User: What shape does this take?
Amino acid sequence: MSEFKGKLHETVVKFPCTDIWNDSCAQDDLEYALERGAVGATTNPVIVKDVLKKEMDIWAPRIKALNEEMPEATEDDIAWALIEEIAALRAKMLLPTFEKFQGKKGRLSIQTNAKNYRNAKKMAEQAIHFNTLGANMQVKMATTKAGIEAFEEATYHGVSINATISFTVAQAVAVAEAVERGLKRREAEGLPTEDMAPVCTIMIGRVDDYIKYVAKRDGIEVDPEYLEWCGIAVFKEAYRIYQERGFRTRLLTAAYRNTKHWSEFIGGDVCMTIAHPWQEKINECDTEVVETMSKPVDPVIVETLLAKFPEYVKAFDVNAQKPEDFEHYGAFIMTINGFLAGYDELCGIIRGFMNPQP
Assistant: This one.
């Protein structure tokens, strides 16, 4: 019998610098991940919506109680009260890890209101508030021009940020630079930074999705296998720059579409947030657990993608975007719209409790 509880457990045992997160705050999923070496978890309104559907027996009484406790509340008010309660509760499951690693691991990531992606002040204020929900909170904000400003401000106030809705090398570098400014402001005032753990997500699967969409939309012919490497190559390019410049922010992979989205980053000083179905697939696969982070993507693949897809240049070239471009990138638009639609669904669930069918 193997000494490992699947490939992800083997990954973290052999490569302690490579962290696995559970891409959900559902109790059963988080327990499964923690048993296999996971050291983080993440949530957002869409994930909370899915958790409610899975755990409605747990949360229906609480939603009803919140309606009674907050008689003047809107469905949005109830939704955010619930999001905060679920995050704070499930963050407690990670506290032993958080304490063991002195803040560097063991955090639960909670996302600010995606509707505020153009408002730095509102994002930063909500991030600072979320940081009070538990010792081990990590706060996600959208990587827009306003988000870059919010990352610096929230970092200065001691928030360990998680930049999300991010797809490009330019976004990742802008995030890391903003965090460095925030950390240096704290250090200049004698405030601690050693227990902070900022990360920047690159949604590698959504990079793939977008370039595949562009290929179909524009009738661009390319080897289909090449399209499975879009996000991987972007992530490895961002990682190269992070290592070269010594940023204190760590990169995080998200939005898995195939097992290479795990196996190509083994051994890197990175985090991987993986949904439960993909954890199961990876744990049962036959891929050997060996160091791959230093292995570059085939240059022919990268050069072909860059030559055929101007939209891929925007993702891969660190100089191809400015902060004001971030929210206009196709992958960002598609993802923010999906997040907002998911939030509306969550509010619809709350509305059903506030106004039940007669």
